[in-house]
Amino acid sequence: MLLWVRMPAGRIRVISQPWLIPPEAKAQPTNNYCLAFTGLDLDAEHRRLLGMGVEIVSETRQQPWGTRNLSLHDPDGYLLFLRQF
């Protein structure tokens, strides 16, 4: 992890841990790092993003360490994680 910012509404992390990146996203050359946003209502955010036509890279998954993750690419191709504890 390179950066971790805590805010009242959640956390933002810049991650450099290849094992966290879902296999569906590894083909993108911009995926050496990803941004992770924590503290969201993940189900509501997923519905909102789908309604906007955002391409979801990996559907919501429960992780062994207790988070639920959803991943998508931003318009520039960078990987974003949305996480909920």
Provide a brief overview of the structure.
With 85 residues, this protein is mostly beta strands. Helix content is 12%, strand content 41%.
Describe the structure.
The protein has a single domain, classed as 2,3-Dihydroxybiphenyl 1,2-Dioxygenase, domain 1 (Roll). Strand 4 and strand 5 form a beta hairpin. It contains 1 helix and 6 strands; from the N terminus they run E-E-E-H-E-E-E. Strands 1-2-3-6-5-4 form a 6-stranded mixed β-sheet, covered by helices on one side. The chain is mainly beta and 85 residues long.
- For the termini, the CA-CA separation is 18 Å
How many separate domains?
1
Shape estimate = globular
Output the radius of gyration: 12 Å
Uncertain ranges? none
Q: Treating each run of at least 4 consecutive H or I residues as one helix, how many helices?
A: 1
- CATH architecture term: Roll
Order of secondary-structure elements: EEEHEEE
Give me the side-by-side strand order of the main sheet: 1-2-3-6-5-4
CATH topology: 2,3-Dihydroxybiphenyl 1,2-Dioxygenase, domain 1
CATH class: Alpha Beta
What fraction of the residues are assigned to beta strands by DSSP? 35-45%
Averaging pLDDT over every residue, what do you get? Answer: 76
What is the CATH superfamily label?
A: 2,3-Dihydroxybiphenyl 1,2-Dioxygenase, domain 1
Using DSSP, what is the number of strands?
6
Helix percentage: 10-25%
User: What structural class do you assign from the helix and strand content?
Assistant: mainly beta
Q: Please summarize the sheet with the most strands.
A: 6 strands, mixed
